[in-house]
Design a protein that fits this description.
Layout (H helix, E strand, L loop, with lengths): L3 H12 L5 H14 L4 H8 L3 H10 L23 H4 L3
Helix pairs in contact: 1-2, 2-3, 3-4
Amino acid sequence: MLRPEDRERIEAIVRLPTTQQRVAKRGQAVLLMADSVAIADVAMLVGANERTVRKWKKRFSAASPVDKLADDPRSGRPPTLSRRQTQPR
């Protein structure tokens, strides 16, 4: 299900200290599912709902699961503060 080069990229993303928590959690779930871990066990290990893990499994069965780790842009009003203004000092 997961090509060796995709596995390496996902493992590298998960290890980065700057990776967003949700992206790291999805990456860990993908790696566990690639190792044939049961959905219920994956959900328990990454701290997600089983329904969510099933959605992830469907989402990551695409040609390039690495590209699907991050969220797609959402519609709606753009943020009014820049990242610089929202970072703690």
